[in-house]
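Title: Comparing notes on inverse folding

I've been comparing how different people in this forum approach sequence design from structure. To keep things fair, I'm posting one structure and asking everyone to reply with a full sequence. Here's the target:
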C-alpha cells in the first residue's frame, strides 16, 4: 500500500490511497501491521469512488459486503461502482439483491433499469424504470 504515497489524480490532487496509506505509517510502533477495520475500508472505498476509481472502490466494497451482507448501503455503493466500471453483470446481481432486501429503494430500481438498458435489455429495463419513477413520488412543489 505504500506505493500509493506517491500517486496523484490527473488534477494534481493526492489520490485517496495516498492518505489511506499514510494514515497507518506510525501505528503500533515500527514494523507493526494493523488490520484495517471494516469502517476504514468503507471510508476508503468512498474516497476511491469520489475520485472515480470505481474498480478499486468495488474491490474494497466487495469485502465490506461480504462481511455485512444484510447492509443495503454498502451493497448499493458496490453496485454503483460496478456499474461505473462497466462490470454490468455483477452490478445487476448486486442491484437485484438490494431490491430483494429493500423493495422500495427507488434508486436501486433506477440503477437496475439503467444497467439493463446498457446490457441491451430495454423491455426488462422499462419495468424497473417505471417502478423507480413510481417509488420516487411526485416532484416537490416549486417556490415553497
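Reply #1:
Here's my take.
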Amino acid at each position: 500500500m505504500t506505493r500509493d504515497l506517491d500517486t496523484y489524480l490527473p488534477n494534481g490532487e493526492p489520490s485517496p490511497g495516498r492518505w489511506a496509506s499514510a494514515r497507518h505509517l506510525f501505528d503500533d510502533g515500527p514494523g507493526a501491521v494493523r488490520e484495517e477495520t471494516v469502517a476504514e475500508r468503507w471510508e476508503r472505498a468512498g474516497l476511491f469512488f469520489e475520485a472515480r476509481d470505481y474498480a478499486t472502490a468495488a474491490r474494497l466494497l466487495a469485502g465490506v459486503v461480504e462481511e455485512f451482507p444484510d447492509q443495503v448501503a454498502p451493497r448499493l455503493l458496490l453496485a454503483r461502482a460496478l456499474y461505473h466500471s462497466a462490470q454490468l453483470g455483477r452490478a445487476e446481481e448486486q442491484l437485484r439483491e438490494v431490491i430483494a432486501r429493500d423493495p422500495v429503494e427507488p434508486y436501486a430500481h433506477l440503477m437496475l433499469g439503467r444497467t439493463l438498458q446498457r446490457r441491451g435489455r430495454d423491455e426488462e429495463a422499462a419495468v424497473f424504470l417505471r417502478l423507480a419513477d413510481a417509488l420516487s413520488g411526485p416532484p416537490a412543489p416549486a417556490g415553497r
